Amino acid sequence: MSFDPIAYINEPRWLESRLGLERIAELLDRLDRPQDRLRFVHVAGTNGKGSTCAYLASILQAAGLRTGLFTSPYLITFEERIRVDGANISADGLTEATLLVKEQAEAMADHPTEFELMCAVALVHFARSGCDIVVLEVGLGGRLDSTNVIDAPEVAVVARIGLDHTKLLGTTLAAIAAEKAGIVKPGSAVVSWPQEPAAMAVIEAAAAAAGDSLVVPDLARLDAGPVDWGGLGAPMRPFSYGRFADLRTRLLGSYQPANAALAIEAAEALRARGWAVADDAVRRGVAETVWPGRFEIVRAAAGEPTVVVDGGHNPQGARALADSLADVFPGCKPVFVVGVLEDKDYPSMLETVLPLGAAFVCVAPDNPRALPADKLARAIRWTGQDLLGCSACTRPYVARDMPDALARACELAGPDGLVCAFGSLYSVGSVKAALGTPA
């Protein structure tokens, strides 16, 4: 029988998440430490870290550097989590790297977890591919995340911190920031989002303790314009940041220019450390960045409702979605397709979006932790009773699956309306599949 690397990595026996670095360190030692042949930008945070990683990888690739990118979760295919110069790892490449990892993992007394296996596969692949630099996204937290097995990165980036995964990371911004700041090590540059004061104090202390320089984007120097629907064949958002006065991005969310500014500061930190990242590479990299599922217009055709999908899955994400809808589609009340995970703070998310919607369609994401659609519908009705002007909340539709949800939402929106699917990154792939939209 042929070896299936994805089935091996996803075996139920090691799906349990167990924070700690002992297993991944032993596994990589057995693999001759591929991480030591690589240089890294390490990115932690709660919101915006994926987009920041995408911007950074695109900038570095535009600078002519062979660039690896490791992200999670995947939206359409498993292979998209491991990329070199924008291309997903091939089936052969995934098989070869996983077989090397499997041989060593099977010899360990304490078998690595799914994420540890995946992290090791990625590092092996990046080393075998001769990457000049790797943009490495933290999976969960930072301090005890498997990606933190690396030595000091060139740059440690901390995106916006919020209250998420509180059972594992802590119930306050300061506690969560302490976990995220665990990626800060002596010998790195540190770039952080301008955090809330409690979190910012933790990041500042971590950088000072490591003897590292700390840069925080000055968002007062950020000036974003409205979406240009003509664009260069596609909608683009023009913006400027500091001395970069002619930037454009395909990522249309109102928050994306700020994520780009964070990535630009990381690129500037790399340049200060001797990496050749020219201004033109920054401009081209930002303009060429593609990052699916983040306020992405997945259908815009005459005679059919426009469909937007957004992977926002916590209260900050819901607020960003609300701001983006008001900015990109002013005065429009969308029909929301909502699917969330049960362990998220979905009541707070609902409080933000309920006053904005014309109608609500509930669906369960394709994930074992999904909140059942009927339970979500009850939550929408209960929350809507406490909010003025929320008549749309009184009768949310409970869908069987995503095709049913989108069909009902498009019927409710009408040909000139707007449908917005949000609540979980795990729904993005099923939305695109139901619409027949290319990944």
In short:
The protein is an alpha/beta fold. Helix content is about 40%, strand content about 15%.
Characterise the protein shown here.
- Its cofactor is Mg(2+).
- Keywords: ATP-binding, Ligase, Magnesium, Metal-binding, Nucleotide-binding.
- It catalyses: (6S)-5,6,7,8-tetrahydrofolyl-(gamma-L-Glu)(n) + L-glutamate + ATP = (6S)-5,6,7,8-tetrahydrofolyl-(gamma-L-Glu)(n+1) + ADP + phosphate + H(+).
- It holds the Pfam family Mur_ligase_C.
- It is an enzyme of class 6 (ligase).
- It is a single chain.
- The protein has helices at about 5-10, 20-30, 50-60, 90-105, 115-130, 165-170, 175-180, 195-210, 255-270, 280-290, 315-330, 345-355, 375-385, 400-415, 430-435; strands spanning about 40-45, 65-70, 80-85, 85-90, 135, 155-160, 190, 215, 220-225, 235-240, 245-250, 295-300, 305-310, 335-340, 360, 395-400, 420.
- The protein folds into 2 domains: about 5-290, Mur-like, catalytic domain (UDP-N-acetylmuramoyl-L-alanine:D-glutamate ligase); about 295-435, Protein-Tyrosine Phosphatase, Chain A, CATH 3.90.190.20.
- The chain is α/β, with parallel strands linked by helices and about 450 residues long.
- A hairpin with a 2-residue loop joins strand 3 and strand 4.
- Helices cover about 40% and strands about 15% of the residues.
- The strands form 3 sheets. It has an 8-stranded mixed beta sheet with strand order 4-3-2-5-1-6-7-8, with helices on both faces.
- The chain is globular, with a radius of gyration of 21 Å.
- It contains 15 helices and 17 strands.
